Request: fold
Amino acid sequence: MNRYSHNPILEPIGAHAWESSLVFNAAVFAANNRVHLLYRAMGTDNISRIGLASSSDGYNIDERLPLPVFSPSNDMENQGCEDPRLSLFGNSLIMAYTAFGNHFQHQVYQIGLTAINTEDFIARRWQWGERILAFPGIHNKDAVLFPQKFDGDYVMFHRLEPDLCIARSNDLRRWYGLKYILGPREKSWDSWKVGAAGPPFLVNEGWLLIYHGVSADRVYSLGVALLDKKNPEQVLYRSEEAILMPTENYERYGKVPNVVFSCGQIIKDDQVLIYYGAADSSLCVATFELAELLPKK
Ligand code: BMA
Reply:
């Protein structure tokens, strides 16, 4: 594993009020020979919005838009749109995110879903579709969609604290089949709670899932699990050790200390580039050999 030597790759811009204090957790979409990052940003009003930056080599940011590309639009997310994750279905890019806002009189983090056409995305026309709540009124976060359907249904991992759970839907609105998939382990780096990082991706051995785990002393690290190709409810393997822990100064000190938190990765020539928020303050990238993430034979 190699952290990029010029981490962080993205830092706040003081002159942009909406992203003047923190830029971190980012969804990833690789297309047109570029890596597009939708990142969570906070500025003077402490409300999360989503910005876009992109890179031709995956490491150096050579495009960054001056305005947010996705902002709170209604009461359900009036405190912020956080932690985006992207999955591609045909020419529709579905974004799952955390909608922080009100449900009736009650303030709650809920799972928001919306979509954008890939042509619009590439042309930087931010015509997002309708915003849907997957589980209205229920405290839930860390939603990722598998990038393919199973028996005609979308399959989502989500997090009902403290466990990573699954649910299915054929229309993104009504979700059923909620089940536990994996939870915290005693005396481990993931002993308090766990949640998906980026969307699972298919390798020869099954679906590889990067996930975050939080320890009893509130350290956020990343680990890996492998799920059965046909039945993603079946966990085939889970790493004993974390694959990335906060050890660098930019991961240890910041808005929330001791955090590495990912919402997406890309695979390039058997290398996995994991993008992650460091200390809820900046955005970083680390490169892994695919073999390092798989169970040892
Ligand atoms: C989670 C989310 C993430 C954040 C993490 C660590 O609950 O709020 O956006 O990176 O906590 O603070």
User: Anything to note?
Assistant: The mean pLDDT is 97. Residues 25, 82-83, 220, 256, 259, 261, 277, 280 surround beta-D-mannopyranose (CB under 6 Å). The chain is about 5% helix and 50% strand.
